Amino acid sequence: MNDWYKKPQIQSQNCSNNGLSFEERFRLNKGKNPELYVPDLVEGKVSDVKFGDEIVFEDFDDEGVLRSCKGLKQYVRTVFETEAESGLKKIPAYIFDNHNHAFAFWNVERYAGQVRDGALLIHVDQHKDTRIPPSFLSIEDAKNLKKVFDYTNTVLNVGNFIPAAQNIGLVKDIIFIDSERSIDEFDFSGLVGRDLILDIDLDFFVPDLDYIGNNKKIDLIGAVLPYANVITFATSPFFIDQQLALDWLVRIAGLVKN
Fold first, then answer.
1. What is the pLDDT of residue 1?
2. Which of 67, 69, 111, 189 would give a disulfide with 57, using CB separation of 3.0 to 4.6 Å?
């Protein structure tokens, strides 16, 4: 478990994202544990984000069809440079596939002093991701990155990582950007003087949500970005075509220097 994000890992137990529909997938897999791939994390640029050949997420869709989704070859930590009121600002940004990994990377930056407890989370996503996880990491254990990584990859899944961040005190307030109304009513005055986590699930750009206006989404992200202490991007392969997700990631990255 010490090597999470240092080298690729295989999830084969009934837990985390692999726990979704585990029994049904176990039967379809002829009595063998289904497996999911977790890539390693590298330093790089948005241009280094590549698609992988391994299954990173698997579940049944609304029609009952099992979908086995490939994700990223590697996760990428990069730095966005943008102009803020105080001058040039360098913001660490993480790009990964399944959204629960945001919890791990928020804690990496918390450990590094980039973001402090009581942060404001701006969650740009078509989903809330606020289901209650099976168990919570203690405040004391959250100080240990090994335990954070283990927890992220054995307990959390794509739909329950935000309460985990609230429980350890890292996140205090949340602004959900999940509709046209939430964009139109966004209040920038609440960002001043706050440590800010900007969390973007690229499935917010799925074609079914085009009616919101993709330029409106980009404009808001571009306006919020200079306030951020850390940015996380999930490509969410079960919920959006990965090439489309990458196209939108590149467009967002075009708003800054990378």
1. 43
2. 69
Residue 166 backbone phi and psi in degrees, to 5: -70, -40
> How far is it, in rounded angstroms, from Cα 235 to Cα 247?
11
For 127, residues 6+ apart whose C-beta sits below 8 A from its C-beta are: 159, 178, 201, 203, 239
The pLDDT of residue 86 is 76
Tell me the C-alpha distance between 137 and 6, whole Å. Answer: 22
pLDDT of residue 2: 61
Instruction: Classify 100 in phi/psi space as left (phi over 0), alpha (psi -120 to 50) or beta.
Output: alpha
The segments of the chain whose pLDDT lies below 50 read 1
35-94, pLDDT tens digit by residue?
Answer: 999 999 999 999 999 999 999 999 999 999 999 999 999 999 999 999 877 788 999 999
CA neighbor of 237 nearest in space, from 109, 78, 71: 71
Residue 230: phi and psi, rounded to 5, are -155, 145
